[in-house]
Design a protein that fits this description.
Layout: H1 2-10, H2 28-42, H3 45-64, H4 77-137, H5 143-191
């Protein structure tokens, strides 16, 4: 068994085990969550209200009792000590929570910047692709252009057909008139 343990620590592909130390190991993530939770509670109106109620009760008890039986007579030295102790722990906890928030904000800012850079690169790429497509199409006819040209051509064909129809009618009328004249001339010549 000792040989297996030696082989396992001797391997390069396995992480080394932690060596024992006299320094306490602190999980900074867990401590950070605790400090944020404490800062959130200390910075609330409920905490201020309960702290005010506790201080008023403490003062009322110590003022109501006689000087000899009061746990903390008039200068309220013990209350001052407790408030100083609470402040001495609250300030670092609040600072730790602010530092963690600043770190989160920094990471979020870096991610936003990277996302923005990717979006800009993508939009530049798409703009270049659209420009390349426009150049490639060049004089290629679009659907709307072809439709417009076909409409114009159809209008020209209709006008030409109408012109032919008018000229045919005119020639038919002229032919009918000339036939009537010839028929009239024939009748006039036969009468003579």
């Amino acid at each position: 068994m000792a040989a297996e343990r030696f082989r396992r620590t001797d391997r390069v592909d396995l992480p080394r085990g932690r060596s024992r130390t006299l320094r306490p190991s602190v999980d900074s993530e867990r401590f950070g969550r605790i400090s944020e939770s404490a800062a959130r509670r200390i910075g609330s109106w409920a905490f201020i209200m309960w702290m005010t109620i506790a201080i008023v009760i403490w003062l009322a008890i110590n003022i109501a009792m006689t000087d000899s039986s009061a746990p903390d007579p008039f200068p309220f030295i013990f209350l001052t000590l407790l408030l100083s102790l609470q402040a001495s722990y609250a300030a670092p906890l609040i600072l730790l929570a602010q530092n963690r928030q600043a770190d989160r904000d920094r990471v979020q800012f870096q991610e936003d910047r990277a996302r923005t850079e990717r979006l800009l690169a993508d939009s530049d790429y798409l703009a270049r692709e659209i420009a390349a497509l426009r150049l490639a199409l060049g004089e290629a006819a679009t659907r709307d252009y072809v439709r417009g040209e076909l409409r114009d051509l159809l209008d020209d064909v209709r006008e030409a057909l109408e012109e032919q129809e008018r000229s045919r009618r005119e020639s038919d009328r002229n032919a009918d008139r000339s036939d009537e004249r010839k028929a009239g001339d024939v009748e006039f010549s036969s009468d003579e």
